[in-house]
């Protein structure tokens, strides 16, 4: 029997053993050279935590409020596509584990369980991630379904006018299953011998003309708050404020889109400074430890989203595996807070982290 994992990274190997190669590669892979994929994790390792001592930390509390919703920790489940490729219960298992842990789950537009199945599976606070398709009526219909089914926010992904070049998917001729959400609307079946079937599907449906003015359109079709996911620069953060989004997610899509885009933790601060606390800044990419969560919060994120580790937990052991991943991260964060002299999430401040900037790191390398 495999040894029990003691940190979330150890779920990756369990997932590899549990899954067909095509699906494991789909989950684990990044774009092209996978340079950014590696950097997302490594950049965290260059940041140090500056603890305060002689503070009474006999009681610590990781709870926080995200977009007005009280949660047990500044941890959210990132939207990731097609959970049934990892486990037969798919997104329903992920949603139940999120509900039990009292953390917010963001359901992917490309989920394998329907919006209705996820909504009726538990009482968790849920957000809905949106892709805008060329056939905008499909995206509008999905927004309305999410709203009708009690999802509390729309997270528009803005870094995917086209799918990044994922070479493992090309080699494996990755096949997307039929997605029940789109039954009767659009077929996900593709039959190309040339490479990734998922990429062929994506290039047929994704609306590459989506631009800033369309935020107005999206806001006009829903009463839910609209956040954008995939911002990496100060300029785009300022533009996001101008068009009136309710929040920003600093993300490079888990390094699956543009390779050589910066590690997200290296650009978090420039976005936080640009936004000046006017709207929440959330964060994802490479979070594998409670110390990573602490660092992102110290730099100014309100919460972090977890992508691959959740899928690996799901693949390894269904709902229970997802619970383990979330609880491990929560426990590690709580310990980091205690060892740094922070009793609450609000106590975590910029002075608790000494960020080594990317420039300083590369100057040191040369
Ligand atoms: C297998 C996989 C599928 C993903 N699917 C989506 C998706 O459907 N929509 C989306 O906005 N982001 C998607 N993402 C990106 C995640 O939301 C998130 O940005 C990323 O996984 C965070 O990085 P991490 O995996 O290092 O935690 C996906 C990521 C992975 C790994
Ligand atoms: C429109 C189909 C694209 C699905 C890809 C899901 C995704 O975002 C990913 O990173 O994979």
Question: What this model shows, in words?
Answer:
- This protein has 366 residues and is α/β, with parallel strands linked by helices.
- Helices cover 42% and strands 12% of the residues.
- Strands 4-5-6-7-8-9-10-11 form an 8-stranded parallel barrel, surrounded by 8 helices. Strands 1-12 form a two-stranded antiparallel sheet. A two-stranded antiparallel ribbon has the order 2-3.
- Helix 5 (115-121) links the parallel strand 5 (104-107) and strand 6 (126-130).
- Helix 1 (11-18) runs antiparallel to helix 13.
- The longest helix is centred in the C-terminal third of the chain and has 33 residues, at 308-340.
- The chain binds flavin mononucleotide and the ligand CCCCCCC(=O)C(=O)O.
- The site of the ligand CCCCCCC(=O)C(=O)O has 10 residues, from helix 8.
- Residues 81, 110, 131, 163, 201-202, 205-206, 253, 256 line the site of ligand LXCWX6NK.
- FMN binds at residues 79-81, 108, 129, 157, 229, 251, 284-288, 307-308.
- It catalyses: a (2S)-2-hydroxycarboxylate + O2 = a 2-oxocarboxylate + H2O2; 2-hydroxyhexanoate + O2 = 2-oxohexanoate + H2O2; 2-hydroxyoctanoate + O2 = 2-oxooctanoate + H2O2.
- Its EC number is 1.1.3.15.
Order the strands across the largest sheet as they lie in space.
Answer: 4-5-6-7-8-9-10-11
> Which stretches are low in confidence, meaning pLDDT under 50 for 5 or more residues running?
none
Order of helices and strands: HHHEEEEHEHEHEHHHEHEHEHEHEH
Average pLDDT level? 95
Small-molecule binders: flavin mononucleotide, ligand LXCWX6NK
């Amino acid at each position: 029997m495999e040894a029990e994992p003691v940190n979330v990274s150890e779920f990756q190997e369990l997932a590899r053993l549990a899954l067909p190669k095509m699906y494991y590669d789909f989950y684990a892979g990044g774009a092209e050279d996978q340079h950014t994929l590696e950097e997302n994790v490594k950049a965290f390792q260059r940041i140090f935590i500056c603890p305060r001592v002689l503070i009474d930390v006999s009681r610590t509390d990781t709870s926080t409020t995200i977009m007005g919703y009280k949660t047990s920790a500044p941890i959210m489940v990132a939207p990731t596509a097609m959970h049934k490729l990892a486990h037969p219960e798919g997104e329903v298992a992920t949603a139940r584990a999120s509900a039990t842990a009292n953390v917010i789950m963001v359901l992917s537009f490309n989920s394998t369980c329907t919006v209705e199945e996820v909504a009726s599976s538990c009482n968790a606070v849920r957000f809905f991630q949106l892709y805008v398709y060329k056939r905008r009526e499909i995206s509008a219909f999905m927004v309305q379904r999410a709203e009708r089914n009690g999802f509390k926010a729309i997270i528009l992904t803005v870094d995917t006018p086209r799918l990044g070049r994922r070479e493992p998917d090309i080699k494996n001729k990755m096949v997307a299953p039929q997605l029940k959400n789109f039954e009767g609307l659009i077929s996900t079946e593709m039959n190309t011998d040339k490479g990734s079937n998922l990429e062929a599907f994506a290039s047929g449906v994704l609306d590459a003309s989506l631009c800033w003015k369309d935020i107005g359109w999206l806001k006009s079709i829903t009463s839910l708050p609209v956040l954008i996911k995939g911002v990496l620069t100060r300029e785009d953060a300022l533009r996001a404020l101008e068009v009136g989004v309710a929040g920003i997610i600093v993300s490079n899509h888990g390094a699956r889109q543009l390779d050589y885009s910066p590690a997200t933790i290296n650009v978090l601060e420039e976005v936080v400074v640009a936004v000046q606390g006017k709207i929440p800044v959330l964060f994802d990419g490479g979070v594998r430890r409670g110390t990573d969560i602490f660092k992102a919060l110290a730099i100014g994120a309100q919460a972090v989203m977890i992508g691959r580790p959740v899928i690996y937990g799901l693949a390894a052991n269904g709902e229970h595996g997802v619970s383990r991943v979330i609880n491990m991260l929560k426990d590690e964060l709580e310990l980091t807070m205690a060892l740094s002299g922070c009793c609450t999430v609000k106590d975590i401040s910029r002075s608790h982290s000494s960020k080594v900037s990317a420039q300083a790191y590369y100057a040191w390398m040369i």
